[in-house]
Amino acid sequence: MNKGIKVALIIALLALFSAGAYGAWYVNNIYKSLDVQVISTEKEDLGITEEAEVKINMFENSKEVINILLLGTDKRAPDENSRSDSMMILSIDPVNNNLKLSSLMRDSYVKIKGHGSDKLAHAYAYGGAPLALNTVNTNFGMNIEYYAVINYGGLINVIDALGGVEIDIKDYEIDMVNAYIGDVAKIEDVPYKAIETTGLQTLTGVQAVGYARVRYVGDGDFERTERQRSVLTSMFNKFKEIDTKDIPGVAAKLAPNVETNVSLYNMVRIGTSVINAGMKNVLQARFPTDDYGYGKLTTKWFYFFEKEETIEELHDFIYENEIPKSQKKD
């Protein structure tokens, strides 16, 4: 799942290298261990419409905000066709000095180029990251050009390199969390320890990935997206505390597990933007919002939503820091 969760770090980490701590040679070496893909930059192929760009350009900070599609897959073998287990838009906003995470509901009923209408998560299975990118842009009125994908092993290694993440385990979650921890450990062929108590505690990489994959307790997929964002936010907070000398080790564990179309030049540019802005906060939201609901079509359950309203709410969150009313805390 959380593979997507880590691109925030890859951008920030490589950015710090570019800031001069280790020099161009080191940055270049780390970049070479990424799985860099070259995809079409044509707007039609990316799913970027003129209508979407007109709406986005109405926001004053639209030129400064950088959006990256983060993808986590349920792939268990290199040649396996998989769905995207998690999808998030990471928005780097140097104007407001924050990062934003927009979780996209995997069951959202959307149009997928060449495949009719289906679940958002299926776009990746049909055409990999390029089709997933096209699908998000087309259905959510975005103009995203960059993506990154991560696998279980990479996330586990990075969380462990950061010293674990702080997560509050609820009493109704613990049994299912432990079941998923065992599943993740089996897939990655790594040892693990079950969580023994509830409450705020430090989770290892395997434990955190298991936690983030939990879907069938609490509020289903709605709550799962919150778990995913909680892990990422905790990782971000840990990253802010890391000693500069330890950054290379974290980056070295991360990079080999990331597929992306971000060029070295843009990696440095984006990262430098993060560092120079001194970002300290991560804002979170989920789209489509809680105002919509599930429905059955033939034999499948989908999350149906009103497209134009969702696009407006997503744009307001990314460009104006406006959290959707249904997700505001009292």
From TrEMBL:
Pfam families according to UniProt: LytR_cpsA_psr
Matches recorded under PANTHER family: POLYISOPRENYL-TEICHOIC ACID--PEPTIDOGLYCAN TEICHOIC ACID TRANSFERASE TAGU (PTHR33392:SF6)
Family statement: Belongs to the LytR/CpsA/Psr (LCP) family.
Every Cell envelope-related transcriptional attenuator domain range: 83-240
Domain of life: Bacteria
NCBIfam families: lytR_cpsA_psr
Protein name in UniProt: LytR family transcriptional regulator
